[in-house]
Amino acid sequence: MAEFESYRANLEVADLTPTVDFLRDVLGFTVEVNEPAMGLALVRRDRVGLGIVRTPNPAVNETTAGYVGVADVDGLHAHCVSRKADIVTGLTEHPWGLRDFVLRIPGGHRIAFGQRIGPAE
């Protein structure tokens, strides 16, 4: 069977610029493609890629659009606080061995960032 090599979530927004700027300036993503005329931007940080797609009727999940595993969730949380990011759920330790937080990016999408801190119970 074929090996899966990557996955990229596509987030729908009404305006590319504020979302791309936030992902680049606050979360440190690199902009690989930015084609406003086509309504598409592709960003990447480490092994995580996101597609930002302009659409007249953007859909935003009622929960998180994705979960990004990180090596230093406390450091990332502190960085996001210092940049006044819209944190909708603060740092939380879960009984299943994860510590995470959720932020809302421009365009309304919520992304969770978390770190494994112990075994699942």
Automatic annotation (TrEMBL):
Residue intervals of the VOC domain: 3-116
InterPro entries reported in the protein's UniProt record: Glyas_Bleomycin-R_OHBP_Dase, Glyas_Fos-R_dOase_dom, VOC_core
Leader peptide range in chain numbering: none
Segments traversing the membrane: none
The protein's name in its UniProt record: VOC domain-containing protein
